[in-house]
Amino acid sequence: MFLDPANFRHPAFRTGMADAFKVAPGIWAWGLMTGVSMVQAGLGPAMSTWMTLLVYGGSAQLAVTPLMAVGTPVWVVLATAFCVNLRFAVFSLHLRGYLMAWPRWQRLTIGYLIADLNYVQFVQNHPTPATDAAGQRAEMAYLCGNCFLTWAGWQIASILGIVLASQVPLEWGLGFAGVLALVGILCSLASSRMRTVSLVVSGAAAIAAYALPLRLNILVAIAAAVAMCLVIEKTAGMDKATT
Amino acid sequence: MIDVFELLTLLGLAAMTVLARCFFFILNRELPFPAWAQRGLLYAPIAALAAVVVPEVLATQGQLISTWLDARLMGAAAGVGYYVYRRGQGQAVLGTIIVGMAVYLPLHIGLGW
Hints:
heterodimer, B: mainly alpha, extended
Protein backbone atom coordinates (compact mmCIF):
# COMPACT_ATOMS: atom_id res chain seq x y z
CA MET A 1 0.00 0.00 0.00
CA PHE A 2 1.81 3.19 1.16
CA LEU A 3 4.95 1.21 1.89
CA ASP A 4 5.03 -0.02 -1.70
CA PRO A 5 7.58 2.11 -3.63
CA ALA A 6 5.54 1.56 -6.80
CA ASN A 7 2.93 3.77 -5.13
CA PHE A 8 4.89 6.34 -3.14
CA ARG A 9 7.57 6.92 -5.78
CA HIS A 10 4.94 7.40 -8.49
CA PRO A 11 4.41 11.06 -9.52
CA ALA A 12 0.64 10.64 -9.02
CA PHE A 13 1.30 10.09 -5.28
CA ARG A 14 2.46 13.72 -5.04
CA THR A 15 -0.47 14.95 -7.12
CA GLY A 16 -2.79 13.18 -4.71
CA MET A 17 -1.06 14.73 -1.70
CA ALA A 18 -1.11 18.21 -3.30
CA ASP A 19 -4.87 17.91 -3.90
CA ALA A 20 -5.47 16.76 -0.32
CA PHE A 21 -3.39 19.71 0.91
CA LYS A 22 -5.80 22.15 -0.76
CA VAL A 23 -8.51 21.15 1.73
CA ALA A 24 -6.20 20.22 4.62
CA PRO A 25 -6.98 23.16 6.96
CA GLY A 26 -10.64 22.18 6.84
CA ILE A 27 -9.78 18.56 7.64
CA TRP A 28 -7.53 19.63 10.53
CA ALA A 29 -10.11 21.93 12.08
CA TRP A 30 -12.79 19.29 11.66
CA GLY A 31 -10.58 16.55 13.16
CA LEU A 32 -9.67 18.83 16.06
CA MET A 33 -13.31 19.54 16.86
CA THR A 34 -14.24 15.84 16.53
CA GLY A 35 -11.57 15.05 19.12
CA VAL A 36 -12.87 17.79 21.43
CA SER A 37 -16.49 16.63 21.00
CA MET A 38 -15.73 12.99 21.84
CA VAL A 39 -14.07 13.88 25.14
CA GLN A 40 -16.69 16.49 26.03
CA ALA A 41 -19.42 13.90 25.39
CA GLY A 42 -17.83 11.82 28.15
CA LEU A 43 -15.89 9.11 26.27
CA GLY A 44 -12.58 9.63 28.06
CA PRO A 45 -9.21 10.34 26.41
CA ALA A 46 -8.07 6.70 25.98
CA MET A 47 -11.35 5.56 24.44
CA SER A 48 -11.48 8.65 22.21
CA THR A 49 -7.93 8.07 20.96
CA TRP A 50 -8.60 4.43 20.15
CA MET A 51 -11.82 5.42 18.46
CA THR A 52 -10.23 7.94 16.14
CA LEU A 53 -7.38 5.55 15.29
CA LEU A 54 -9.64 2.56 14.59
CA VAL A 55 -12.96 3.91 13.35
CA TYR A 56 -11.65 6.81 11.20
CA GLY A 57 -15.00 8.32 10.24
CA GLY A 58 -15.94 11.71 11.66
CA SER A 59 -19.69 11.62 11.07
CA ALA A 60 -20.07 8.06 12.42
CA GLN A 61 -17.91 8.86 15.46
CA LEU A 62 -19.98 11.92 16.30
CA ALA A 63 -23.20 9.95 15.86
CA VAL A 64 -22.26 7.04 18.15
CA THR A 65 -20.34 9.00 20.81
CA PRO A 66 -23.46 10.10 22.76
CA LEU A 67 -24.89 6.57 22.44
CA MET A 68 -21.76 4.93 23.84
CA ALA A 69 -21.50 7.45 26.68
CA VAL A 70 -24.88 6.25 28.02
CA GLY A 71 -24.27 2.53 27.46
CA THR A 72 -26.53 1.83 24.47
CA PRO A 73 -26.55 -1.86 23.33
CA VAL A 74 -23.67 -2.62 20.97
CA TRP A 75 -25.84 -3.67 18.04
CA VAL A 76 -27.64 -0.32 18.09
CA VAL A 77 -24.28 1.48 18.11
CA LEU A 78 -23.03 -0.59 15.16
CA ALA A 79 -26.28 -0.19 13.17
CA THR A 80 -26.19 3.56 13.74
CA ALA A 81 -22.60 3.77 12.49
CA PHE A 82 -23.44 1.75 9.40
CA CYS A 83 -26.49 3.86 8.52
CA VAL A 84 -24.59 7.11 8.97
CA ASN A 85 -21.95 5.64 6.65
CA LEU A 86 -24.41 4.53 3.98
CA ARG A 87 -23.39 7.32 1.59
CA PHE A 88 -20.04 5.55 1.32
CA ALA A 89 -21.80 2.51 -0.13
CA VAL A 90 -22.92 4.74 -3.02
CA PHE A 91 -19.31 5.86 -3.45
CA SER A 92 -18.14 2.23 -3.39
CA LEU A 93 -20.44 1.41 -6.31
CA HIS A 94 -18.69 4.14 -8.28
CA LEU A 95 -15.19 3.16 -7.11
CA ARG A 96 -15.82 -0.45 -8.07
CA GLY A 97 -15.05 0.38 -11.70
CA TYR A 98 -11.59 1.59 -10.63
CA LEU A 99 -10.63 -0.88 -7.93
CA MET A 100 -11.72 -4.31 -9.18
CA ALA A 101 -8.36 -4.66 -10.97
CA TRP A 102 -6.64 -4.97 -7.56
CA PRO A 103 -6.51 -7.94 -5.16
CA ARG A 104 -9.12 -7.94 -2.42
CA TRP A 105 -6.88 -7.04 0.53
CA GLN A 106 -5.62 -3.99 -1.36
CA ARG A 107 -9.19 -2.96 -2.22
CA LEU A 108 -10.24 -3.25 1.41
CA THR A 109 -7.19 -1.39 2.74
CA ILE A 110 -7.51 1.56 0.40
CA GLY A 111 -11.32 1.45 0.63
CA TYR A 112 -11.15 1.82 4.42
CA LEU A 113 -9.15 5.04 3.96
CA ILE A 114 -11.31 6.68 1.27
CA ALA A 115 -13.34 9.37 3.07
CA ASP A 116 -15.75 11.83 1.42
CA LEU A 117 -13.23 14.31 0.05
CA ASN A 118 -10.81 11.59 -1.10
CA TYR A 119 -13.56 10.01 -3.17
CA VAL A 120 -14.66 13.34 -4.65
CA GLN A 121 -11.15 14.49 -5.53
CA PHE A 122 -10.26 11.10 -6.97
CA VAL A 123 -13.22 10.83 -9.36
CA GLN A 124 -12.71 14.48 -10.29
CA ASN A 125 -9.10 13.72 -11.23
CA HIS A 126 -9.90 10.43 -12.92
CA PRO A 127 -13.33 10.86 -14.54
CA THR A 128 -13.15 7.43 -16.20
CA PRO A 129 -11.40 4.28 -14.95
CA ALA A 130 -8.11 3.41 -16.66
CA THR A 131 -8.06 0.23 -18.75
CA ASP A 132 -4.30 -0.41 -18.78
CA ALA A 133 -1.95 -1.41 -15.97
CA ALA A 134 0.03 1.87 -16.03
CA GLY A 135 -3.17 3.91 -15.70
CA GLN A 136 -4.42 1.73 -12.86
CA ARG A 137 -1.11 2.16 -11.04
CA ALA A 138 -1.40 5.93 -11.43
CA GLU A 139 -4.93 5.79 -9.95
CA MET A 140 -3.76 3.71 -6.98
CA ALA A 141 -0.76 5.99 -6.39
CA TYR A 142 -3.03 9.05 -6.47
CA LEU A 143 -5.41 7.45 -3.97
CA CYS A 144 -2.52 6.45 -1.68
CA GLY A 145 -1.07 9.98 -1.64
CA ASN A 146 -4.45 11.66 -1.27
CA CYS A 147 -5.68 9.36 1.50
CA PHE A 148 -2.35 9.29 3.34
CA LEU A 149 -2.19 13.08 3.79
CA THR A 150 -5.84 13.24 4.86
CA TRP A 151 -5.42 10.34 7.29
CA ALA A 152 -2.26 11.70 8.91
CA GLY A 153 -3.67 15.23 9.24
CA TRP A 154 -6.97 13.97 10.63
CA GLN A 155 -5.35 11.71 13.23
CA ILE A 156 -2.88 14.33 14.45
CA ALA A 157 -5.61 16.98 14.66
CA SER A 158 -8.05 14.60 16.42
CA ILE A 159 -5.50 13.55 19.03
CA LEU A 160 -4.58 17.21 19.55
CA GLY A 161 -8.30 17.89 20.09
CA ILE A 162 -8.53 15.05 22.62
CA VAL A 163 -5.52 16.43 24.53
CA LEU A 164 -6.76 20.03 24.40
CA ALA A 165 -10.42 19.13 25.02
CA SER A 166 -10.78 21.40 28.04
CA GLN A 167 -9.03 24.35 26.37
CA VAL A 168 -10.99 24.57 23.11
CA PRO A 169 -14.65 25.45 23.65
CA LEU A 170 -17.02 23.94 21.07
CA GLU A 171 -18.81 27.32 21.03
CA TRP A 172 -15.99 28.87 18.99
CA GLY A 173 -17.25 26.87 16.05
CA LEU A 174 -13.82 25.98 14.61
CA GLY A 175 -15.45 22.93 13.05
CA PHE A 176 -17.05 25.27 10.53
CA ALA A 177 -13.73 25.13 8.63
CA GLY A 178 -14.66 21.54 7.72
CA VAL A 179 -17.96 22.74 6.29
CA LEU A 180 -16.08 25.41 4.31
CA ALA A 181 -13.72 22.77 2.86
CA LEU A 182 -16.79 20.92 1.61
CA VAL A 183 -18.24 24.20 0.26
CA GLY A 184 -15.04 24.78 -1.72
CA ILE A 185 -15.17 21.28 -3.18
CA LEU A 186 -18.87 21.76 -3.99
CA CYS A 187 -17.95 24.88 -5.99
CA SER A 188 -15.33 22.94 -7.94
CA LEU A 189 -17.82 20.14 -8.65
CA ALA A 190 -20.59 22.47 -9.86
CA SER A 191 -19.00 22.56 -13.31
CA SER A 192 -22.12 21.94 -15.42
CA ARG A 193 -25.74 23.04 -15.29
CA MET A 194 -26.95 19.50 -14.57
CA ARG A 195 -24.55 19.10 -11.67
CA THR A 196 -25.82 22.38 -10.24
CA VAL A 197 -29.35 20.96 -10.48
CA SER A 198 -28.10 17.94 -8.54
CA LEU A 199 -26.65 20.24 -5.85
CA VAL A 200 -29.86 22.25 -5.43
CA VAL A 201 -32.23 19.25 -5.43
CA SER A 202 -30.06 17.31 -3.01
CA GLY A 203 -29.61 20.26 -0.65
CA ALA A 204 -33.35 20.96 -0.57
CA ALA A 205 -34.20 17.29 -0.07
CA ALA A 206 -31.63 16.95 2.72
CA ILE A 207 -33.30 19.75 4.67
CA ALA A 208 -36.84 18.55 3.89
CA ALA A 209 -36.02 15.00 5.05
CA TYR A 210 -33.92 16.10 8.03
CA ALA A 211 -36.34 14.57 10.52
CA LEU A 212 -35.40 11.04 9.40
CA PRO A 213 -33.30 9.12 11.96
CA LEU A 214 -29.65 8.05 11.53
CA ARG A 215 -28.93 10.81 8.98
CA LEU A 216 -30.86 8.83 6.37
CA ASN A 217 -31.84 12.21 4.89
CA ILE A 218 -28.45 12.14 3.11
CA LEU A 219 -29.37 8.93 1.31
CA VAL A 220 -32.84 10.25 0.41
CA ALA A 221 -31.25 13.44 -0.93
CA ILE A 222 -28.74 11.56 -3.12
CA ALA A 223 -31.52 9.35 -4.53
CA ALA A 224 -33.78 12.36 -5.20
CA ALA A 225 -31.04 14.36 -6.93
CA VAL A 226 -29.77 11.49 -9.08
CA ALA A 227 -33.33 10.50 -10.08
CA MET A 228 -34.22 14.12 -10.92
CA CYS A 229 -31.10 14.54 -13.07
CA LEU A 230 -31.73 11.28 -14.94
CA VAL A 231 -35.34 12.32 -15.64
CA ILE A 232 -34.28 15.75 -16.90
CA GLU A 233 -31.61 14.16 -19.11
CA LYS A 234 -34.18 11.79 -20.53
CA THR A 235 -36.81 14.46 -21.29
CA ALA A 236 -34.21 16.82 -22.77
CA GLY A 237 -32.67 14.01 -24.82
CA MET A 238 -29.32 14.67 -23.18
CA ASP A 239 -28.71 11.06 -22.26
CA LYS A 240 -26.81 10.46 -25.50
CA ALA A 241 -24.44 13.37 -24.83
CA THR A 242 -21.17 12.97 -22.96
CA THR A 243 -21.31 15.45 -20.06
CA MET B 1 -6.94 2.24 29.54
CA ILE B 2 -9.94 0.62 27.95
CA ASP B 3 -11.33 -2.84 28.62
CA VAL B 4 -11.75 -5.74 26.21
CA PHE B 5 -15.45 -5.12 25.69
CA GLU B 6 -14.83 -1.49 24.69
CA LEU B 7 -12.04 -2.54 22.35
CA LEU B 8 -14.35 -5.09 20.68
CA THR B 9 -17.02 -2.40 20.22
CA LEU B 10 -14.45 -0.13 18.56
CA LEU B 11 -13.26 -2.98 16.32
CA GLY B 12 -16.90 -3.54 15.37
CA LEU B 13 -17.22 0.14 14.50
CA ALA B 14 -14.04 -0.06 12.41
CA ALA B 15 -15.59 -3.03 10.61
CA MET B 16 -18.66 -0.85 9.89
CA THR B 17 -16.34 1.72 8.28
CA VAL B 18 -14.79 -0.96 6.05
CA LEU B 19 -18.16 -2.54 5.26
CA ALA B 20 -19.75 0.75 4.15
CA ARG B 21 -16.75 2.16 2.29
CA CYS B 22 -16.05 -1.09 0.43
CA PHE B 23 -19.66 -2.28 0.17
CA PHE B 24 -19.81 -2.90 -3.59
CA PHE B 25 -16.25 -4.11 -4.10
CA ILE B 26 -15.82 -6.60 -1.26
CA LEU B 27 -16.80 -9.57 -3.40
CA ASN B 28 -14.94 -10.57 -6.56
CA ARG B 29 -18.10 -11.46 -8.42
CA GLU B 30 -19.42 -9.54 -11.43
CA LEU B 31 -22.08 -6.91 -10.80
CA PRO B 32 -24.66 -6.19 -13.52
CA PHE B 33 -24.49 -2.47 -14.08
CA PRO B 34 -27.06 -0.83 -16.39
CA ALA B 35 -26.10 2.27 -18.42
CA TRP B 36 -28.59 4.53 -16.62
CA ALA B 37 -27.02 3.69 -13.28
CA GLN B 38 -23.61 4.49 -14.71
CA ARG B 39 -24.88 7.92 -15.79
CA GLY B 40 -26.58 8.45 -12.46
CA LEU B 41 -23.25 8.08 -10.69
CA LEU B 42 -22.06 11.26 -12.42
CA TYR B 43 -24.43 13.19 -10.17
CA ALA B 44 -23.83 11.23 -6.96
CA PRO B 45 -20.67 12.96 -5.65
CA ILE B 46 -22.07 16.48 -5.76
CA ALA B 47 -25.42 15.27 -4.41
CA ALA B 48 -23.76 13.53 -1.45
CA LEU B 49 -21.70 16.60 -0.53
CA ALA B 50 -24.67 18.95 -0.95
CA ALA B 51 -26.76 16.71 1.32
CA VAL B 52 -24.10 17.01 4.04
CA VAL B 53 -23.25 20.70 3.57
CA VAL B 54 -26.50 22.51 2.78
CA PRO B 55 -28.25 21.65 6.10
CA GLU B 56 -25.05 22.67 7.96
CA VAL B 57 -25.17 26.14 6.40
CA LEU B 58 -28.87 26.88 5.84
CA ALA B 59 -30.56 25.08 8.72
CA THR B 60 -30.40 24.66 12.49
CA GLN B 61 -31.49 21.19 13.64
CA GLY B 62 -33.28 20.76 10.30
CA GLN B 63 -35.18 24.05 10.53
CA LEU B 64 -34.44 26.47 7.70
CA ILE B 65 -32.81 29.56 9.21
CA SER B 66 -35.13 32.56 9.32
CA THR B 67 -32.61 35.41 9.51
CA TRP B 68 -29.84 36.78 7.30
CA LEU B 69 -27.85 37.56 10.44
CA ASP B 70 -26.19 34.15 10.55
CA ALA B 71 -22.43 33.76 10.76
CA ARG B 72 -22.51 30.45 8.82
CA LEU B 73 -24.45 32.03 5.97
CA MET B 74 -22.09 35.02 5.76
CA GLY B 75 -18.97 32.83 6.08
CA ALA B 76 -20.11 30.41 3.38
CA ALA B 77 -21.17 33.29 1.10
CA ALA B 78 -17.75 34.92 1.53
CA GLY B 79 -16.04 31.60 0.79
CA VAL B 80 -18.10 31.01 -2.37
CA GLY B 81 -17.50 34.64 -3.38
CA TYR B 82 -13.75 34.13 -3.11
CA TYR B 83 -13.93 30.88 -5.11
CA VAL B 84 -15.90 32.58 -7.91
CA TYR B 85 -13.53 35.59 -7.87
CA ARG B 86 -10.54 33.24 -8.28
CA ARG B 87 -12.52 31.26 -10.90
CA GLY B 88 -11.45 28.08 -9.11
CA GLN B 89 -7.79 28.56 -10.09
CA GLY B 90 -4.76 27.80 -7.89
CA GLN B 91 -5.49 27.37 -4.20
CA ALA B 92 -9.11 28.51 -4.54
CA VAL B 93 -10.45 25.86 -2.13
CA LEU B 94 -7.83 26.74 0.50
CA GLY B 95 -8.80 30.40 0.04
CA THR B 96 -12.47 29.50 0.44
CA ILE B 97 -11.70 28.01 3.86
CA ILE B 98 -9.52 30.91 5.02
CA VAL B 99 -11.74 33.75 3.75
CA GLY B 100 -14.84 31.96 5.05
CA MET B 101 -13.35 31.53 8.53
CA ALA B 102 -12.10 35.15 8.52
CA VAL B 103 -15.72 36.25 8.09
CA TYR B 104 -17.30 33.54 10.26
CA LEU B 105 -15.19 33.71 13.43
CA PRO B 106 -15.58 37.47 14.21
CA LEU B 107 -19.33 37.33 13.56
CA HIS B 108 -19.78 34.11 15.55
CA ILE B 109 -17.52 34.79 18.54
CA GLY B 110 -17.67 38.58 18.50
CA LEU B 111 -21.33 39.24 17.72
CA GLY B 112 -22.75 35.87 18.75
CA TRP B 113 -24.53 35.32 15.38
